[in-house]
Structures are given as structure tokens and as C-alpha cells.
Amino acid sequence: MDILNEDIGANKLELYSIDEAFMDLTGTEALRDRLTLTPARLAAMADGLTAIAALPDPLDRVLAEWTRPNGLRFARVASPIGVIGMIYESRPNVGADAAGICLKAGSAVVLRGGSEAAASAAAIHAAIQAGLRQADLPEACVQMAPGTDRAYVAAMLGAAGFIDLIVPRGGKSLVTRVQHEARVPVLAHAEGICHTYVHAKASPDLARRVLVNAKMRRPGICGATETLLIDAAIAPTLLPLLVADLSALGCDFRADARARALLPDLPAATDFDTEWLDAILSVAVVDGPDAAIAHIERHGSHHTDAILTEDAATAERFLAAVDSAVVMWNTSTQFCDGGEFGFGAELGIATGRLHARGPVGVEQLTTYRTLVRGHGQIRA
Question: What is the Cα–Cα distance from 90 to 40, expressed in whole angstroms?
Fold first, then answer.
């Protein structure tokens, strides 16, 4: 079935261009990084598809089994979701990742990318279609909107009964509008306001190495650390070293009053609710783990947050208390990635509390049915 040619355009949703959602990134290094396809990145896309193909079949897995006193036997079994609508911007590789994950999970996918990467997205889709033909699979398993007309987005959001799940992948404004206007269930994440908390008992060498990676490896991805929290007990000695390391790589800062008391040249922070997606780091000095946890709860986006410490008890308390999709100990927040989780790739990072949290791979893109086997039981 060609979903985009069905008569589903009569909905009254506001028509909008998803290109609006990334305008804040226009001209930035983050946007250029997201759009760039190098030979290495193309190879990584192919490797991701190979890794997805090699994963165990996520369907028909028995997730749980139990037997009731009346002899009824229950089995909860993984099954496909159906048709996934993928609305994304600026990252052309998303089309390949989505196609591989959806196919492996037994679902079809309808792709709609932004105009800023339309040619790249079309070329990737053509390669996927060639692969489907070679594998003797229906080309309709992976459909793509035939153009960047905003009407296709509205049609997808109103396609209840044709599309079973919408996954938006992009900036905050895109995700917010999709969640507001969709007539189809949405699996999404909001901003990636990720924190790295340097505890008083952190190894200075580890903290310096990990923070540089967490912020500067790729500042424009959603798993990049946007806020550094550092204990007041070690801030006078360690914060200048951390700032010097990052400054040498071109990072800028937005610091609270306590951090600026130690380093007066740091620009003042006006808020801690900004996802920079750039070489900018918010910095705050805190009084221990409870204050760090409270700051994350107040300003975080439930994406990925990390603690750096050699104190196992404090680390476990942080892991238990921070209600984010991914919580880490002594490692870089940039490991929040489907490939790094062993999923081959990801459809996105889910930060809600229902169905899936964190990187969404093939297992997370399944639902389940309950099979009940009896031998003539009737209910009293």
C-alpha cells in the first residue's frame, strides 16, 4: 500500500515546514556536522545496517510465561508495531538507520526528511530500495515522501489507521509541534540537556579526560554534555583545569556566580535550560550529590546524565535517584547512542516514561501480544 497516496489529506491540521525547527542551527558548526556525509560516515551507515541484520530476530520472543491455578497458560510474545512514520531533519543518515531498524523489527516505515538534506536523503532511500529489490522484499516496506512539500507532514500526522507510530527526530520545536498536532501515537525525546556531575571523590585525570569527550567530541549531538556540575569541595583546584582543557579546544562557557568567583573571566549564565548543541558549556558549583540531583531534576530533560566519582556508594545513589532515560557512572554522556549500546543503530532517543526509554533499537521498536492456551476452561 502506498500510504502517502491514500486519501488522508483531508485533516484540518496546520501545515508547517519542519525546516522551521532547525533554523536556530543554520550556519552553525553543529548543523554542518549533521549534514556532512564523509566516506567514513557512509561506511559507518553501512556497518550499522550490517550490525542490525546480524542481531537476533526481535519478533516472536517469549517475554514472559506463567500458568494460572485454573490451568490457563499465558505467554507474552514480541510482535511488530506496524507502520512507523519517521519525520526527521538535518541528519540524512537517519533514513538508513530507520529503514534497517524498522525492517528488522517487522515494521514498514514512511520517511520524511527536511529540505536541507533532501538530495542526500533521496540517494540513501534509492540505495535502500535497491537493496530491497535485491532481497526480494516489497519496496513499499520503506517509503519516502516524494517531495519536501509541507502537506506530507500534515498528512502523516493525521494518518490514524494508516500509520501506527510517529517518531520525530530533530529540534525541540519540531518535536513539540509533532506532539501537539499528531493524531497518531508519538515516540519522541525533547531536548538533550545532559549533565556531567564531578563529585568530590572523582579522579581528576578521569574527570578531565571524560569531560573533554562528553562535551567536545561532537558538540552538536543530543548526547553531548551541556552542563558541568562540580562539587564545591574540589572546584577551586579542578575547575580551572577543566576549563583550560576545554578552552584549548575552542569551548566557551556560561557560569553561575560560584564558578565565576573562582574564574571571574567566565561569562555569566542566564539560565541552565538551554541545549547549546555547540561548543558552549554551562557550569555550576554545587554542594554535594543531593544538590547535583536537585539541579538535574530542575533543569534536565531526562535524556542522559552522568556522575564521575570513585565513591561507589555515591555513584549508586546517583544512578538510583536521577530519573533520566540513561544514567551513567564514570563515562562520557556521548555513549548514549544505539550503536554504542550494541543495537547497530537507533531510531532516536526516547525520554518519555512509556513503551521505550533511551536509544530505540529493534527490540524497543516492538510491542507484544498475549497468547492464552487452555483446555476448555470457562469463567465462573
Answer: 18
The superfamily CATH assigns to domain 194-335 is Aldehyde Dehydrogenase; Chain A, domain 2 (3.40.309.10)
C-alpha span between 116 and 24 (Å, rounded): 13
What whole-number distance in Å separates Cα of residue 64 and Cα of residue 10?
A: 42
Question: Which is more confident, 364 or 20?
Answer: 364
- According to the model, what pLDDT value does residue 280 have? 97
Say if strands 358-359 and 62-67 run parallel, antiparallel, or are unpaired.
unpaired
214: three-class secondary structure by DSSP: helix
For residue 332, give the C-alpha cell: 562520557
CA-wise closest residue to 304 among 195, 211, 214, 167:
195
15 has which bridge partners?
Answer: none
Q: Are strands 280-286 and 194-198 parallel, antiparallel or unpaired?
A: unpaired
Dihedrals phi, psi of 247, to nearest 5 degrees: -60, -40
Q: Tell me what pLDDT residue 24 has.
A: 45
Q: What CATH number was assigned to the domain covering residues 3-187+360-373?
A: 3.40.605.10
Long-range CB contact pairs, 350-359, < 8 A, 24+: 350/187, 350/188, 350/189, 350/325, 351/188, 351/189, 351/190, 351/301, 351/302, 351/303, 351/324, 351/325, 352/187, 352/188, 352/189, 355/187, 356/187, 357/325, 357/326, 358/325, 358/326, 359/326
Which residue's C-alpha cell is 542551527? 25
Instruction: Please give the mean pLDDT across all residues of the chain.
Output: 89
Interior/surface letters 201-240, b for 16+ CB within 10 angstroms, e for the rest: ebeeeebbebbbbbbbeebbbbbbbbbbbbbbebbeebbe
Domain definitions of the chain by residue range: 3-187+360-373, 194-335
pTM of the predicted protein model:
0.81
- Rounded CA-CA distance 236/22 in Å is 38
The 10s digit of each residue's pLDDT in 177-218 is 888 999 999 987 768 999 999 999 999 999 999 999 999 999
By the 8 A CB rule, do 304 and 194 touch?
Answer: yes
Phi first, then psi, for residue 300 (nearest 5°) are -80, 170
What's the length of the chain? 380
Residue 111 has pLDDT above 80, yes or no: yes
Q: Are strands 165-169 and 83-88 parallel, antiparallel or unpaired?
A: parallel
